[in-house]
Amino acid sequence: MQAQYDEIEVLGQTFKEATESEQKVDNIRRRIKLLKERIGYIDKPIFEPEVKKAPDRTIEQHSDEMAKLRAKMQPKAKTTIETETEVADKELRDAIDKAMAKMK
Question: Is residue 72 assigned to a domain?
Fold first, then answer.
């Protein structure tokens, strides 16, 4: 343990004398490594992504879901003026028949 401490001190002194940036970077990395060893630090990932497993489905279930999605994506049938007038005529006929039934 004392040897690590002495080595860290020596590296600290040599850092002051280092002129090239690569020497300084190497010095700092070695000191960090020694300090981690001294305190027993273990590198762990900061974030462990959670892997979600897709639900187990049969081919039939998958096909059914795809068919439902395709049905939702289909364009809706456009109502034409003729179909709208037919519906309005039917409603009017039903209303007249109902009113005539009340009069009798």
Answer: no
Is 34 within 8 Å of 4 (Cβ atoms)? yes
CB 42 within 8 A of CB 33: no
Residue written as tokens 């039917």?
90
- Structural domains counted in the chain: 1
Q: What is the pLDDT of residues 3-45, one digit of tens each?
A: 666 888 888 888 888 888 888 899 899 988 888 888 888 877 7
Question: Structural domain of residue 35, as residue ranges?
Answer: 2-39
Q: Has residue 30 been placed in a domain?
A: yes
CA–CA distance, 4 with 37 (Å, rounded to integer): 9
Exposure string over 36-57, b if 16+ CB within 10 A, otherwise e:
eeeeeeeeeeeeeeeeeeeeee
Would you say residue 85 lies in a domain? no
Residue 52 lies in a domain: no
Could you tell me if 27 and 15 are in contact, meaning their C-beta atoms sit under 8 angstroms apart? yes
The whole-model pTM stands at: 0.38
